Amino acid sequence: MTTAVTVTEFAGSFAEFLAHLSDDATTTLREEAFRYFEAIGFPTPKDEDWKYTNVGSVVSEKWLVNSAGKSGDVGGFNYKRNGFTALNLAFADVVVVRIPSETIVVEPIELSFTAEDGKAIFPHVIIVAESGSKATIVETYAASGRGFTNAAVQVLVEENANLTHYRVQKDSVEAFNYGVTEVEVRRGGHYDSTNINLGAALSRHDIELKFVAEGAEAWVDGLYMLSGEQHHDTHSIIDHALPNCLSHQTYKGVLNDSSRGVFNGKVFVRENAHGTDAQQSNKNLLLSNDARVDTKPQLEIFNDDVKCSHGATVGQLEEEELFYLLTRGLPETLAKNLLTYGFAEQVINKIGIESIKSELDEMVLRRLSTIL
Amino acid sequence: MLLEVKDLHAGIDGKEILKGLNLQVNAGEVHAIMGPNGSGKSTLSKVLAGHPSYEVISGEVLFEGKDLLELDPDERAREGVFMAFQYPVEVPGVSNSQFLRLAYNQKALHHGQEELDPLEFNDYLKEKAKIVEMDPQFFKRSVNEGFSGGEKKRNEILQMAVLEPKLAILDETDSGLDIDALRIVAEGVNKLRSSENAIILVTHYQRLLNYIQPDFVHVLANGKIVKEGGKELALELEEKGYDWVKGATN
Ligand SMILES: Nc1ncnc2c1ncn2[C@@H]1O[C@H](COP(=O)(O)OP(=O)(O)O)[C@@H](O)[C@H]1O
Ligand SMILES: [Mg+2]
């Protein structure tokens, strides 16, 4: 019922939004997406994919739509993924980043999105790294108050392109964040992503990567560090549809207080994808008895000539590491904080931009001083 | 007296490993504890460092006349007890310099000395690293992560150099070292040796003692010191093997 109310709320906003839209080339697609949204509504825990993440309380609120409605070529987007993606396309505010072929962009390209208190934003980013190009994208979410971000990012890594992608979600702890990242990697392409989830009361990130040609390589790594009542859910799909591609996935979770984490990582190795090398791991550190994580790494292999590994752990700090630090004179609290920091840093250390890395360092440390 | 171990019985998982061990160490002395594998050398080291898995069944350990066993491991460290691990632990994500500075400052704080900021500490660390010929590139790397066996052992001695303990227990610091690394580590230890501190070298082989001359050699077998002597005892052991002293227990 709550969903229906929200759908109606958005219907009013949508009519108004369309009326103000200057460019009507995308209107038909937006209407189609909105109708789809009206038909399916927001996901509920009855959906297998949303079993642990209940968005009911958030979507039932009244949100003020804040979208400039810029258009772009969003044709390839799978808006039927769920109600959020459909709604994103309806209200999409498109940003296109195109890195021309054989071009090396040294400075990171920064994209920053801020949902203000009570407002909903619908960024839709299209990133095309043309053949042989090299660039770094920094995608940041920094909502204030109870802002609602519903984002979609489509990435295309063309032949032999090299794209580094940092996604940093540092919304206020009251915010709500849904984001989907769709990635397609072509022959010889190289995609390296690091996804940091620190903020929001409730956040969900869907990431789906497809190798659409041979000889490509991708890293899909991430960290969720949660405290208080925070809830984060990452659903990831890595699809080896073609031979000789390499994928690496390391996700780490640090959960304190009564926070809740969900990691669901599917890796598909299709029938003809021989020579695949797929490594996946999800490690979680529980710092409190009330914290909880549900992790499900799934490897589905339909070819024998592959090298795959996956695993998940949920646990406390390593006893021997702790003892080692104690024998160097660190008091227990400090030693535990340092180990927790180190656990998180293993993901953050991947970030090659010093200013971002040190900001995240700071955020992690600030989190820790409130932990123990 | 710096360290006094009196009739120590200790073990793990309900199994008694140290069966009445006695040891006396004064400042300025170097003691070698030698013994075959499984004789309890690491157990002694870990009990002295305060490993929570080991239980002391009976006996006493006094450090500067005070009960060492009632102190937590971190308190022991700040009081000046240091153990170089036989198998140094990797601490991913924590840089060596960060870790060492925290450790240094905790000790400084405890003794009412001034803490060092990252820049000051870096200078201090660079000086100390020379003692074990350690490249400053190791400062930035995660503690022991991806270090070779020899690099880990050198890192242990670097930590000792930084923390300047009164009592250092080096558990098989020579194992897994090639001859060059052994020389570097041994020379490092010799530089750190002073009339103010004491060192306990725990080792299986006599080899290390060619480089670091001990004042006393104790032979551990079956959880007890079965023979004691000067540095010549190590040579005798090398020649005759451990069976020779094991016989002495019966
Ligand atoms: N966790 C444990 N549980 C049971 N026995 C142990 C454990 N750790 C060590 N031991 C036993 O204690 C004895 C002494 O071990 P240790 O102190 O490591 O000897 P050393 O260092 O001289 O080789 C050995 O027989 C070993 O098998
Ligand atoms: Mg041993």
**Quaternary:** heterodimer
CATH architecture of chain B: 3-Layer(aba) Sandwich
Give the strand order of the largest sheet of chain B, numbering strands 1, 2, ... along the chain. 6-9-10-3-11-12
Low-pLDDT segments of chain B? none
Secondary structure category of chain B: alpha/beta
Overall 3D form of chain B: globular
What are the SSEs and their pairings?
The complex is a heterodimer of chains A (372) and B (250).
Chain A: H1 2-20, H2 27-40, H3 56-59, E1 64-65, H4 83-91, E2 93-99, E3 109-113, E4 119-121, E5 123-129, E6 134-141, E7 148-157, E8 162-169, E9 176-185, E10 190-197, E11 202-211, E12 217-226, E13 231-240, E14 246-255, E15 260-269, E16 276-286, E17 292-301, E18 306-315, H5 319-326, H6 332-348, H7 354-369
Parallel strand pairs in A: 1-4, 2-5, 3-6, 4-7, 5-7, 6-8, 7-9, 8-10, 9-11, 10-12, 11-13, 12-14, 13-15, 14-16, 15-17, 16-18
Helix pairs in contact in A: 1-2, 2-4, 5-6, 6-7
Chain B: E1 3-12, E2 15-25, E3 30-34, H1 41-49, E4 54-63, E5 66-67, H2 73-79, E6 81-84, E7 91-95, H3 96-110, H4 118-131, H5 137-140, E8 142-143, H6 149-163, E9 167-171, H7 179-192, E10 198-203, E11 216-221, E12 224-229, H8 232-240, H9 242-249
Parallel strand pairs in B: 3-10, 3-11, 6-9, 9-10
Antiparallel strand pairs in B: 1-2, 1-4, 4-5, 7-8, 11-12
Textual characterization of the structure:
The complex is a heterodimer of chains A (372) and B (250). Chain A has two domains: 2-316, no CATH class; 319-372, no CATH class. The mean pLDDT of chain A is 94. By secondary structure, chain A is α/β, with parallel strands linked by helices. Helices cover 23% and strands 40% of the residues of chain A. The N and C termini of chain A lie far apart (42 Å). Chain A has seven helices and 18 strands. In chain A, the strands form two sheets. In chain A, strands 1, 2, 4, 5, 7, 9, 11, 13, 15 and 17 form a ten-stranded parallel beta sheet that branches. An eight-stranded parallel beta sheet of chain A has the order 3-6-8-10-12-14-16-18, covered by helices on one side. Chain A has helices at residues 2-20, 27-40, 56-59, 83-91, 319-326, 332-348, 354-369; strands at residues 64-65, 93-99, 109-113, 119-121, 123-129, 134-141, 148-157, 162-169, 176-185, 190-197, 202-211, 217-226, 231-240, 246-255, 260-269, 276-286, 292-301, 306-315. With 250 residues, chain B is of the alpha/beta class. Chain B has one domain (3-249): P-loop containing nucleotide triphosphate hydrolases (Rossmann fold, 3-Layer(aba) Sandwich). Helix content of chain B is 38%, strand content 29%. Chain B is built from nine helices and twelve strands. Chain B has helices at 41-49, 73-79, 96-110, 118-131, 137-140, 149-163, 179-192, 232-240, 242-249; strands at residues 3-12, 15-25, 30-34, 54-63, 66-67, 81-84, 91-95, 142-143, 167-171, 198-203, 216-221, 224-229. In chain B, the strands form three sheets. In chain B, strands 6-9-10-3-11-12 form a six-stranded mixed beta sheet, with helices on both faces. In chain B, helix 7 links the parallel strand 9 (167-171) and strand 10 (198-203). The two termini of chain B are 31 Å apart. The mean pLDDT of chain B is 94. The interface between A and B is medium-sized, with 24 and 31 residues. The site of magnesium ion has 4 residues of chain B, from helix 1. Magnesium ion is lined by residues 41-42, 86, 172 of chain B.
